[in-house]
Fold:
Amino acid sequence: MNSSKSRSGRRRWSQKQRQQFVADFNKSKTTQRDFANSQGIGLSTLSKWLRPKRKIVPAKVKFQEIRLPSPATRNPVEVVSPHGWIVRLQNGSDLQMLPQLLQALPC
Structure:
């Protein structure tokens, strides 16, 4: 297959050519490395073409308000999750509610 060259001298394959390489590879009974070598394309290039296109959809964040009973006077507490959420109990927050609060959060 013929390819064009970019300004940097790298080969540029059209979308149709890429699709043909992928189709030919899928029909072949060879490894990606052997197929890429036989076609004169880089292994990483072939691997990239074979990866399925995935849409990156950001996770939806849901918040739920939790009301705590009137607090006793205490020091503030902060719990930081490895998943990225933070729970802060202000001065006077009741620490006895912390286990119930943490169970309501996604882990």
